[in-house]
Predict the 3D structure of the following.
Amino acid sequence: MREGSNLRTGGQILVDALKIHGVDLAFCVPGESYLAVLDALYDARDAIRLVACRQEGGAANMAEAYGKLIGRPGICFVTRGPGATNASIGVHTAFQDSTPMILFIGQVARDQVEREAFQEVDFRRMFGPLAKWVAQIDDAARIPELVSQAFHRAMAGRPGPVVIALPEDMLTERVDVADAGPYKTVRPHPGAADLDAMRGRLAAAKRPFMLLGGGGWSADAVADITAFAETNDLPTGAAFRCQDLFDNTRKNYVGDVGIGINPPLAERVKAADLLLVVGARLGEMTTSGYTLVDLPRPKQTLVHVHAGAEELGRVYQADLPINAGMAAFAAAARALPPVDSAAWTEWTAAARADYLANLQHPQNPGALQMGEVMAYLRERLPADAILTNGAGNYATWLHRFYQYRHFRTQLAPTSGAMGYGVPAAVAAKAVHPDRPVISFAGDGCFLMNGQELATAVQYGLNIIILVINNGMYGTIRMHQERHYPGRISGTDLVNPDFAAYARAFGAHGETVETTADFAPAFERAVQAGRPALLELKLDPEAITPRASLSQIRAAASSK
């Protein structure tokens, strides 16, 4: 750089912009299409930690988990073509989970566009439905402007992912340009009239129910909405995979409204005369396939609070739509005078009793009892432990039997993406090295991004991975037995020795076959001083906490 000038390469301008916007950690798989950025990151290595991953899907999931955990955009760099397509799964998860994230993609040189150059893809068309905004920076002088816009878009209103393509020749171009300032988060505030109307509807209710979900929350917002719930004695549930938005041990928490919902809770949602939905989109998983709440006009009086104006009225017509960010709404709700909750005191107490009863774990087939494993972890882990998971029937034990006590101790994809748990755990441990981080994965789920165990070993991120191995794609097998009993196709798996696999990476690895073996093995994993993996051998019959595979097949065959 010349004395007294801002003459820099595009790569240097970009990295300087990341520092200005507060980026302290980025995930990548290196590629020749953005070498100039990697070079600039070398000079910024004291300000921005760069974690090199083993596959772009893992890197993107790590960036999404960082954004979910921290509330600031997670940053991911990948190369063009196959790098970008691999990363698309993390972008989709960020979109459906309302997580701020920015994916930077190295792109072909500007003079090679529209020639189907090596690994060329039009990312505006590819990522259009998956992101809040997709852009390409063709002029290095516009990097400060467009990167600023990327951060603002990722954070404003309903948070979400942004994708920025970076032509490789643009990144080596040298220009003299001023930097932008740091981004500012912009979210709407609820109006006084909306708050008064909401309070009036609550005061008139007999069977209210509050449902929390979505993105854009903070620890302060969670504290405020908790105080609002408790002063008004509101029964409060969490949308699918948003269970850490309300301390599960508090008397107003009544359960998660998602896959495998407690049947009494499902009936309670249907029977409510007021649904106060804060942050949740009321998607397919949260509404049990749009059956808990009628389309498009719910039977319940619906007050729907969401940060994205485009979401209000999109699926459900609310009696009172409120366009507001979570922090602003929660603070305003807390400040309202409480209403007389005597009409629903017994309703709330009964809902809590149903939740506590649902924590009692039944026996499952086989020598390893997953309910007892979860009960042990529920008592053993500190309140700030972070638990991660991907997709699969194994997660039902985690969702049903663990109690989340702190904000952002659950990292799980509402998009239902497999392979999320391991990279999410790596990201969580990079952010919070002193907190326990436990990753849950099925045998199918683990092998989708299990290679990121190498990343954990490389960077000394001592996560503990629990691989629940039942030798199949369990969720799909369950659906096969329900709809095509006995006709098994494409769901059986032949697996490696997962404990030996872990040891091959330099991690601690053990196999657990009985309930009695789990606690000692877990304690050895904790004390191992390196990443650890426990392979839990689960009987294939133990497909859900409520029914075995044979019971599901028999019920389907009798129809």
